[in-house]
Amino acid sequence: MNNLPPLPLIGGSLFIDNSGFMEGVSTCTRYLQYKTLNLRIPAGEKASLNFGSAAHLGKELRYCRYQNKPVDEKFYDDFGVLLTEFYNEHPVPSDDWRGLNFAMEMERKYNNRWEQEEFNLLRYETPIACPHCNGMGMRIPDGGLSDVVYPPCLWCQGTGKREVMVELPFSLPLYTHENIPVIYTGRIDLPLCLDSQIFVMDHKTSSQMGKQFWDEMRRTGQMRGYVWAFEQLTGMSVSGYIVNGIRTKELPKYVQEGKTHKRGEKSYDASSFWGETFQRDRFYVDKREIDYWKNNTIDLVEEFFWHYSRGYMPEKTKWCAIYGQCPYYEVCQIQPPEERVLFLQSGLFTDNVWSPLNKKNPTQTKQ
Length: 367
Fold this sequence. Notes:
This protein is an alpha+beta fold. The protein is 38% helix and 21% strand. The strands form 5 sheets. The chain has a 5-stranded mixed sheet with strand order 3-8-9-10-13. Strands 1-7-6 form a 3-stranded mixed sheet.
């Protein structure tokens, strides 16, 4: 007897993504159960996730409007408006540094570091409707009237069009389990052309940017999946992926005061700190690696279906506290197990409604 919640099928299909489904099935299937079957997540949004979303807003605005060119002060005026609205909706605890001012300063430093990009952005054959104003060209508030003249949309500057491929969502058939189609979904931050080759870039925020971070990025299944997805969408050959690393470390006192800090035999100042904050690396992948990614992903999904058919998602305790305490740590502590679902329904958790497909960009594109 299967006592798990019903499969979250949409139109008879199972939609999977990297940050929710694949992260869970690759680490702890109990985590996956709570997040994607019970559809409950911790009620308190983490400041780190908020900052990651804010950083993506800045990159989307920059590359949509300026492509590979330097930004101007108009960018910061408009980004300040969007950022203020974002943090009003997603407040950060007063004792956390990753608020509006930090996000704005990080955006300025990022644009100074990558002032003139060496790559070219890919363009749609025919411009699409701006996903932020649905092609209206105006900043229509929720509940606003479409026949009223509102201020121009800050994303498309009133044109109602988007010409470059930025924040590109996709939804693609992966395979069919028995009679259930499995659909792989996600959002590609920035497809681009560099040295006459196509790459997909992903913006990654992290508190640390050392060897462990780059070792993980070298083996990440997410980016191989995005390479596969872009090739499926466009028919173009993709050479690999680029990780656009952004360190979210709190500003040390010596940086805030513009001083020099000595650590051992080395001296550090604001310039060296910011130099370590923004890092990029390029990774090449070939067809064999993409085929391996697809087969491996399907096998992991099959593992999920096998556990589901038995009515039990096992707890993999190695992941309980390896990178900090799991958000469901206290849930798994509760006895008897039948009461865990009741705890998930408490005010400590909220409905998981996130999807990489929330913005309505088209999923079929051609260069």
